[in-house]
Design a protein that fits this description.
The chain is an alpha+beta fold and about 375 residues long. Helix content is about 25%, strand content about 35%. Strands 3-12-15-14-13-16 form a six-stranded antiparallel β-barrel. The chain has a four-stranded antiparallel beta sheet with strand order 4-11-9-6, with no helix packed on it. InterPro entries: Beta-barrel_RND_2, MdtA-like_BSH.
């Protein structure tokens, strides 16, 4: 009897433990609230295919089209001039830029002229006796010979005998030696080849200038060129004389240039073609950084959108039935820094015009509508 009672009590204890555990488990379960459906607002617009101009952007620095690097061909002390040899100094065409002291060399030139004059004087008696028919022209040449002026050209020799006689007396060799010295004497004075401005000065008055030394740089500030590199895909679209829109990086100044030259070869490394754009404007300065926009061609039946809207697999988001997000495949035909030109997008398609974070196909969305009542 006692064993039966203990068995019954054990069974009751086990059953009670099971029900107690089940109660505890059920009491732990919480009812999770159903999350509300979130409908994101998107910016969208209907597609209308048009003719989109392909604008090629390129950047570059301005350089003067006419530029001269000034070098010394002779040696001497830089003499002070009427104008200071400083950057920013303007000069007229033919005006003296640099004067180098040539007093010692000038004496050498004068000595050579004197030797030529003496040689001519010495042959005059023989010319009068042996060649009376040419005596007058040589006498006239001698009368017009001024040692303080440029040596005049020798009279034309009309016969072989006259030529042999004059050359045999060393007149011709003396003449060309003198002209050579005069030519070198002219290099002591450097003159402006055109109206322009000095942009670099590497010497000052009193400096000892040496032959081959660079003295400065001189430019024409009225006309500039900008070198740009264009993809080889558009090489055949660049034509000499084509107008180009230019602007500074801030976008506050606009200019108009013209394609002046196009390189005939393609850069092997970058696969680009070099084009030169000529531009004239008083506001321009050498070294300015400008952006050029060349209209390469026009793409028909296309749209232009921000590059951030194009997905990795050449797809964009569209809105179906005004509430469901979807993707469609597109054909990108041209990329710029911020835009992309797309084709194969049907007219009337509602595309998303601003990036949407966390977007996916099938997502419920709401198209933003501007309040026009304000």
């Amino acid at each position: 009897m006692r064993k039966a009672i203990l068995a019954v009590l054990g069974i009751l204890l086990v059953v009670g433990a099971i029900f107690g555990a089940k109660y505890l488990i059920d009491s732990k379960q919480r009812v999770r609230p159903i999350p509300p459906k979130v409908v994101k607002t998107v910016f969208a617009d209907k597609v209308e295919n048009t003719v989109v101009p392909i604008i090629i952007s390129a950047n570059g620095n301005l350089t003067a089209k006419r530029r001269v690097e000034i070098y010394a061909e002779v040696q001497g002390v830089f003499k002070p001039g009427r104008k200071l040899f400083k950057p920013g100094q303007e000069y007229r065409n033919g005006e003296q830029l640099i004067s180098i002291d040539a007093s010692e060399y000038y004496a050498t030139v004068q000595s050579a002229k004197s030797n030529l004059y003496n040689a001519l004087t010495a042959i005059m008696p023989d010319l009068r006796l042996d060649f009376p028919e040419v005596y007058n022209k040589w006498q006239e040449y001698l009368n017009n010979f001024d040692i303080n002026k440029t040596t005049p050209e020798l009279p034309e020799m009309t016969s072989e005998k006259e030529n042999y006689f004059i050359s045999g007396r060393g007149i011709v060799s003396n003449y060309y030696n003198t002209k050579n010295l005069e030519q070198r004497l002219s290099k002591y004075n450097i003159r402006a080849p055109f109206r322009g401005i000095l942009t670099q000065a590497l010497v000052t008055e009193g400096t000892l200038v040496r032959a081959g030394q660079k003295l400065g740089e001189y430019i024409d500030p009225t006309i500039y060129e900008m070198e740009v590199a264009i993809s080889k895909s558009y090489a055949d679209l660049l034509e000499k004389g084509k107008k180009v829109a230019l602007n500074n990086l801030e976008g506050t100044q606009n200019f108009e240039g013209t394609v002046s030259r196009v390189n005939g070869s393609i850069d092997v490394t970058t696969q680009t073609v070099t084009a030169f754009i000529e531009v004239k404007d008083e506001r321009l300065k050498e070294g300015m950084y400008l952006e050029a926009k060349l209209e390469a061609k026009q793409e028909e039946n296309a749209i232009e959108v921000n590059r951030s809207l194009l997905l990795d697999n050449n797809e964009i988001y569209v809105v179906r039935q005004d509430s469901i997000l979807d993707v469609v495949s597109v054909n990108p035909v041209y990329f710029s820094d911020a835009k992309v030109v797309l084709k194969d997008v049907a007219d009337g398609t509602v595309i998303v015009t601003r990036p949407l974070q966390g977007a996916f196909a099938g997502m419920l969305v709401k198209i933003f509508e501007e309040d026009n009542t304000k």
